[in-house]
Amino acid sequence: MTLTRSKNNKHMHLLISMYWIWLVFAISCSSPSEPQSQNIKSAEALAIKKLLLSSFDVPENQYPIFTNSTKKWVLTNSKSWTSGFYPGCLWYGYELSGNAQLKSLAEQFTQGLFEEQYTTSHHDVGFMIFNSYGLGYKITGNESYKNVILQAAKSLSTRYNENVGCIQSWNGEYQVIIDNMMNLELLFWASKNGGDSTYYNMAVSHANKTIQNHIREDGSSFHVVHYDPETGDVMRKRTAQGYSDNSTWARGQAWGIYGFTMCYRETGNIEYLNTAVKMADYYISHLPEDSIPYWDFNLPENYERDFKDASAATIALSGLIELNSFVNSSKYQNTITSTLNSLMGKYLIENSSESGIINHCAYHANDPNPDYWDSATIWGDYYFLEALDRINAN
Predict the structure, then answer these.
(1) Is 233 in the active site?
(2) What is the pLDDT of residue 15?
(3) Does the annotation mark 306 as catalytic?
(4) CB-based burial, 272-290: b 16+ in 10 Å, e otherwise
(5) Residue whose C-alpha is closest to residue 90's, from 104, 74, 72, 73
(6) 124, 296, 309, 389: which is the annotated catalytic residue?
(7) Which of 179, 296, 374, 381 is catalytic?
(8) Ordered structural domains, the chain, with CATH
(9) If you average pLDDT over every residue of the chain, what do you get?
């Protein structure tokens, strides 16, 4: 039975409690010879519970972004770059559990992003639409979602500049950020599913320019590259959220691992696989003992804001799971295992009164707002759920 949000809260709480008891019972009956599998199932059960409870904290047409000092979600409207992650979490929750309430919520919050298919003011339409409508289409085959995805790709393509060979990330100066690699999947998908074939070429050009101008020889990465929009020349390279212009922002490195692995999947171009491997090797070689990176890989010793970024870990984890399916490396498998163990052991938010699933994410450690330094983030939850889904699929 699917409940709407207008139903009695007591009824909803009772269903959540009954579902939680059932999940715990199912886990307790699983094979004792597979402790890691049991831990993953326990993490899934906790995540499903938290997603069901989130329906009481997230009003219609509002979208979580990060938690504040009260340990509750800070909410935004549909125009935030992060708006697609919450319906994406709900879709993954539904796929992991088959829970009809999560499907109903996923459909509702996905529909709330309908107008964002026309967004041309920034590059994050890929995050917004492909993580909501795109994932919903993949899971359900709902044909009404397809046209929304194709329109979003058309909107994203308007930010492509042939002189630069990239999609512009932010307005004003022509800036491209490493995060933009994540939006190329929308273009690849659209080009293969009824959209303009030039979208494929745009995505390839953007990936090639990112290799050329964002990735350093040692596999580390610049966050932001400024281009001359008339000549395509690189004007400067800097950071926006990292420690310094020449440091390596951990989440940016994770975006790159994930993004180039995806590009290899979509194109078969070995250069993309080699770049993903190069970036993954740098990432792994600079991890602390628990495999959860600090927010920048080049922080000075005893730096006052030495926060971990578990969201970088979840992004890299999901990317490494796919990368390892192509290269089958014991190094990657060991990192996947150690990252999972740390996330499940020390970073899961078990308190039902607190929002979110994964704690200790650094949204923006350079920002003066301390809520940005160490909290749950909706993208940290999303990529953790995606990682669990990818593990189940293997």
Answers:
(1) no
(2) 56
(3) no
(4) bbebbbbbbbbbbebbeeb
(5) 104
(6) 124
(7) 179
(8) 9-393 (1.50.10.10)
(9) 92
